[in-house]
From TrEMBL:
The lineage of its organism: Bacteria, Bacillati, Actinomycetota, Actinomycetes, Mycobacteriales. This is Uncharacterized protein. It comes from Mycobacterium pseudoshottsii.
């Protein structure tokens, strides 16, 4: 589950987001077809 306040970054471009309001069922957020990762996590690309 992605929590409110989580900072995410795209693995394929420079896009970054902060989750303001998340649904209880939100487990995956994607950008450019790849799952977004928490800031500070090593990007795969």
């Amino acid at each position: 589950m992605i929590k409110n306040g989580t900072r995410l970054a795209s693995q394929v471009c420079d896009t970054q987001v902060i989750v303001v309001r998340s649904a209880d069922t939100l487990d995956d957020l994607r950008c450019g077809g790849a799952p977004m990762v928490e800031i500070g996590v090593q990007r795969s690309g």
